[in-house]
Design a protein that fits this description.
alpha/beta; 8-stranded mixed sheet; 12 helices; 39% helix
């Protein structure tokens, strides 16, 4: 499925450029998908968990992939802020081939899941939602793999349910520092909302190049730009932008770094060293901005305070090592969760 999406994206780009020496054609139209990513196909069948939370019915989309030769273990993959369950495609295939059952949800407020107009987003609430999903699926003591904001969620989950987590893997998690304590000024929800309404394929591509992919861009990343741009440009864009604003506020105001010493689950940190992520960094004073998102230091600091944590560093990768170098990342991940 993704190969066909990518081929279409590349063909569209080439058509927009025209033959050598010709004038550039009209700009490509922005993609547009529904508020639950209607119209964007995932590489695996999507199931939906119906439940009630905060006095309203909601649905959480998720992938549940069973291996041909099970090893008896389940990996639960928790996506980041600008990611979805589908962006774990390479890891799902590698883990499934290695015998793991893989569950990858879209959290409430994200991707193919509900976009409630009024919801108190907290990491505890998202962890409770995920716990309910795994209970329904009969998943016990999973390996939690959380990337970016999903890393913050995975850490909170491990703190809430320490006896129900087999292993914890944090992939370039945000929340390794308290941005507000370091000088990030308060950001109002309405300000986040206005920023999110301006999201476009161009802005997504520019941000991801600088932060996720260490200054480089490859055509294979284009489907994920299409996914986000279409979600933010579709008929439900106001609802998407509002939930996004609520989620950014959650991320900034609920740092988990202070509770790292309380994590009682075997933990693996996987850190791309060229990451510079800090939510809202562009709104901070220049002297503060320069001090935020130093992942080579932040990863080592987290490894020191999380009891027994192991650290794997990727010297040439940015915020999304699982997407920049999926083969190398998958080898390291499977080796890391196979270790005693």
């Amino acid at each position: 499925m993704l190969r066909s999406i990518l081929a279409s994206a590349l063909a569209a780009v080439l058509l927009s450029l025209g033959p050598p020496g010709s004038a550039r054609a009209e700009p490509l139209p922005q993609p547009a998908y529904g508020p639950e990513l209607e119209g964007f196909a995932y590489p695996f069948p999507v199931a939906r968990f119906q439940f009630t939370s905060q006095r309203q019915p909601l649905q959480m989309a998720y992938l549940d992939i069973h291996p041909a030769t099970p090893n008896g273990r389940t990996a639960v993959l928790l996506h980041g802020k600008n990611f979805c369950a589908a962006t774990w495609e390479s890891q799902i295939r590698a883990l499934s081939d290695a015998g793991y059952r893989v569950v990858a949800p879209d959290q409430i407020g994200f991707c193919k899941s509900s976009k409630p107009a009024a919801y108190q987003f907290t990491f505890r609430q998202l962890a409770e939602n995920t716990h309910a999903l795994l209970g329904m699926l009969g998943v016990e003591r999973p390996i939690l793999v959380g990337h970016s904001t999903g890393g913050m969620l995975a850490a909170h989950y491990a703190l809430l349910y320490p006896k129900e987590v087999g292993q914890l893997v944090l992939v370039n998690p945000v929340g390794l520092e308290d941005w507000s304590a370091k000088g990030l000024p308060p950001i109002a929800l309405d300000q986040w909302y206005r920023r999110e309404l301006k999201t476009s394929a161009q802005s997504i591509r520019a941000y991801e190049t600088a932060t996720y992919y260490a200054g480089t861009w490859e055509p294979r990343y284009e489907p994920w730009v299409d996914m986000l741009a279409g979600l933010n440009n579709g008929p439900g864009k106001e609802a998407v932008a509002w939930d996004s604003a609520l989620l950014y506020d959650m991320i900034v105001t609920q740092p988990v770094v202070y509770r790292f010493p309380q994590i009682a689950v075997p933990t693996l940190l996987m850190i791309g060293q060229k990451d510079n992520t800090a939510i809202g960094k562009d709104l901070a004073p220049p002297e503060v901005r320069a001090s935020l998102g130093n992942y080579p230091e932040l990863g080592k600091a987290a490894a020191r305070v999380i009891p027994g944590a192991r650290l794997v560093e990727f010297p040439n990768l940015g915020h999304a090592p699982q997407m920049s170098d999926p083969e190398g990342f998958n080898r390291a991940l499977i080796a890391g969760i196979s270790a005693p």
